[in-house]
Task: structure prediction
Amino acid sequence: MTAPRLHNLPNYPFADLGKRIQKLNEQGKDVIQLDMGSPDLPPAPAVIDALAKSAARPDRHGYAGYRGTPDFRKAVAKYYQNRFGVEVDSNREVLPLLGSKEGIVNLTLAMIGPGDVALVPSIAYPAYAMGTLLAEGTVFEMPLLAENKFLPVFSDIPTDVLEKAKLLWVNYPNNPTAAFCDLNFYEEAVAFCREHNILLCSDNAYIEVTFDGLSHAPSALQIAGAKDVTVEFISTSKSYNMAGWRLGAAVGNEAALDALLKVKSNVDSGHFHSIYDAGIVAFETTTQEWLDERNACYARRRDKILSVLSQLRLEVDEPPKGSLYVWARVVGMSDTEYTEKALLEAGVSITPGSVYGNDGKGYVRISLGISDARLNEAIERLLRLWN
Ligand SMILES: Cc1ncc(COP(=O)(O)O)c(C=O)c1O
Result:
């Protein structure tokens, strides 16, 4: 019954995992989820106030427009100016999204068709590859290896692949590896994409989730001329603890955003007006102090995990400097053996690295988006399991 485009599309890994955990819960098992990258802390009070005030207004309940509200787009443009010194035109170079995942998949549908190639990291957030499969395009995996600090090596991509490539995905701070890149890397990526006529897609969902005194991560749009070949995806989900609100934005190349809007305007009709109103407050009023305090909380959880890592039969090369994850190598067994035992014998759900691609084999991803009390309980259970 289903269309051919679904036949090669695997189930979304977290949807399958969610079903399994629901079953375990129904059997009375208490599963602690260290698998989901969903912040456990609330947004700033001013954001919630703005939502409540806006929702109480009678003029906020109709369609808000396919391009979102002008004021929300202006808030995103102002954020780029203030935070990164990047000038973007709020009318032409900012497109609000129903969460960045939606934009990632819909941009792929706009740009990729049968015969086209998307260059996707071999360890990656699944949406880049899933979107490509949905678009009936071809995924070419760029290896992300620990010895290259989980950065792709562009010069290794074969010429015949480059001729068919239309999109190149990068994501730093990275999910799941927690790797960072610097502006030199973005400079190289922009030049490479310009040379080969490829759209650089920078998924920067964790741009504000940085530790150890780092105020934020860099933006690919900081590179001079980047907008000629680049779209960057940002999101309120991890930046401002608003994952369930589903509010993000695509920023950069006008022609790519127009193509994305062509898909979106045939699929969705924008967000609830009040979500945009609250989003403005998030982008315009969130202070560095609020971000630092939130990020320090993640960093404390990271340190707690790292302090017992070897007793958990795990190891890392470097402590993560940001993102919401500890990406650790498993010692003495496969990643799926590790996570299955943790789930079934300790009631702790951890994501096996192989979910993120072949090069993720042998690793696990532990989320920091869980309350201190539940994290402590999970660590105790795992220590009992492995010692
Ligand atoms: C790397 C990365 N990109 C994008 C997203 C999607 O975020 P959202 O759709 O909530 O904006 C996520 C969510 O986990 C992510 O990890």
